[in-house]
Specification:
The structure is a single chain. The protein is mostly beta strands. The chain has 2 domains: 4-77, Glycoprotein, Type 4 Pilin (2-Layer Sandwich), CATH 3.30.700; 86-164, RNA polymerase II/Efflux pump adaptor protein, barrel-sandwich hybrid domain (OB fold (Dihydrolipoamide Acetyltransferase, E2P)). The chain has 1 helix and 17 strands. It has one helix at 78-85, and strands spanning 4-8, 11-17, 22-25, 28-36, 41-46, 49-58, 61-66, 69-77, 87-89, 97-100, 105-110, 117-118, 123-129, 132-137, 142-147, 154-155, 160-164. The strands form 3 sheets. An 8-stranded antiparallel beta barrel has the order 1-2-3-4-5-6-7-8. The chain has a 5-stranded antiparallel β-sheet with strand order 9-10-17-15-12. The protein has a 4-stranded antiparallel β-sheet with strand order 14-13-11-16, with no helix packed on it.
Amino acid sequence: MITYHVTVNGKELTVRPGAEGSVSIDGKERAHDVQRISLTEFSVMIGIRQVRVVVSAGEEGFDVIAGDFRGRVTVESERGRLLRRYARSTGGSGSRLEVHAPMPAMVVRLEVNVGDEVRAGQPLIVLEAMKMENELLASGAGRVKAVYATAGKAVEKGELLLLLE
């Protein structure tokens, strides 16, 4: 079952789509129906309550108007959260960023080499796990200091793949 972490004005909710017409929000099952009215406008039925929802992309997440509610909403999948968690900074000046394998996987290809300059969001390495390719992205700008992974080789969860500074 897919899990999403939805933050609404700073409060995090766990959302799991269920059987057709249902969704679980923090463990409470709710019936719902969503109809798209336009590119940014939706009609949402939650139980017996109908709400008009207007969504626009903001810098970090979405700006949402739903009935009397106005706020900022961000959505992160469980998989996205896991991938982000395994890119860790060691902090300090001359900060280093360690990129670790988020799961046991096969290295499909390296997108960078030692000495390359990278920007935030740039692909660094592609892993394959459970027949799905997972692209690990740089969480910040830097230069590739070391590459520990090799294409075609298996890696274990938590294994150090790349070092950026």
